[in-house]
Amino acid sequence: MSAYVIGDIKVSDPDTYARYAAGVPASSGAYGCRYLVRGQDRCEIAEGGWLPERLVLAEYQDMETVKAWYYSPEYTKLREIRQSASTGNLIFAEGIDPEPVRDKEPEAGGYVIADIEITDMDTYATYRAGVPDTIAAHGGRFLVRGAEGEPAEGDWAPKRVVVIEFESLELAKAWYHSPEYSELKKIRQTASSGNVIFAAGI
Q: I need a labelling partner for 84 at 20 to 30 A (CA). Which of 14, 51, 140, 167 fits?
């Protein structure tokens, strides 16, 4: 099953962090990583108060590969550099596809990332049943749907992670603000709480 790393990073030492940023692509690339979002000031708030200063969304073949990379000797050294130059949260989340479905390298897509806590499961089920058609109508697809985030660093432990991919940030926003999704959004908001952001792809 495909798997994702989501990082919310706040840099305190830009020069040292730059050493990490320069070294990490070779480390993660050796494990088949594809960066979907990577960098500073790429996010906008849609709901809630979560606004990452620097967001990373990285795609791997499966959870075993994610952990093999994260605990590898080469990345352990880089991780120590990053942690000396930044603070933040890092989670692993399982995707919905048996393996990443891409016939080419990702382009500058648009992403909706949500951290949701359900308070009324029956009402939320109505929302959940209706939302896929609205996403498909705007050319989007789920990458992660309802996975519990596995904390790797920090204190962020989301109960329900959702990541939706669109061909562009404009299409992501068009879906979110569309009349058909706006009605479903009201249902979700009565049955859950959480944070939703837009993120611009690399």
A: 51
